[in-house]
Amino acid sequence: MAKVYTTASMSLDGYVSGPGETGFDRLFAWYGNGDVAVETAHPELALRLTEVSAAYWRRVASETGALVVGRKLFDLTEGWGGTHPLGVPVVVVTHTLPDGWPREGAPFHFVTDGGTRGVERAVALARELAGGKDVAVNAGTIARQCLDAGLVDEVGVDLVPVLLGGGTPFFAGLRGAPYELEGPVSLAEGDRVTHLRYRVRYA
Asked: Rounded to 5, what percent of the chain is helix, strand, coil?
């Protein structure tokens, strides 16, 4: 059965970015520390992973049919140039449409409702677009809102052995916490990263 999941590369002290949006070179070093070339749908992004991480990446990519992201990530990546590396439709939760969007031929969809209604609509649309595959929700505010709305089935962590000492935590300000997690339901040990997946148990 198709799932809704959120996942992120996270430091050992729980951050998905360091102070002032730093630390990404360390959090994503595993994208380039192996000998296995992995192509993505984005022509300018090719990964070099270890065998374990490559198998993990390919499995996740094959099972994922759509993404839900926030406006902050969309702006930081400049909309991935119109093509997300996974090559799947992207639903962006935003208060206002970004200039120049939507674009013809770019599979990006925008939901401008705020709060819980917005993430509920975004996830519902992503499920339709995913064609029976899983839906990924990017970490941060959107993931927290989806968890509190009971929409997330699994939480993934690409655990990186670095201490950032501050920054943006994977989860903060959860209204429904504590949440019990079952598992890990999957585990893969790469080089300087451990890929974990847990199932969310709602009360």
From this structure: 30, 35, 40
Q: Contact 202/186 with Cβ under 8 angstroms?
A: no
Residue that the structure tokens 């040990």 belong to: 189
How far CA 47 is from CA of 13, 104, 156, 157, 167, in Å, comes to: 25, 28, 20, 19, 26
| pLDDT value of residue 140 | 86
For 140-178, write each residue's pLDDT tens digit.
889 999 999 999 999 999 999 999 999 999 988 899 999
Low-confidence ranges of the chain (pLDDT < 70): none
Q: Output the CA angle 127-133-139, nearest 5 degrees.
A: 70
List of residues 6+ apart from 115 with CB closer than 8 A:
145
Q: Which domain holds residue 97?
A: 4-201
Quick one: which H or E segment has residue 27?
helix 24-27
pLDDT value of position 45? 87
Under 8 Å between Cβ of 14 and 170 = yes
The span from the CA of 28 to the CA of 133, in Å, is: 25
CATH of the domain at 143: 3.40.430.10
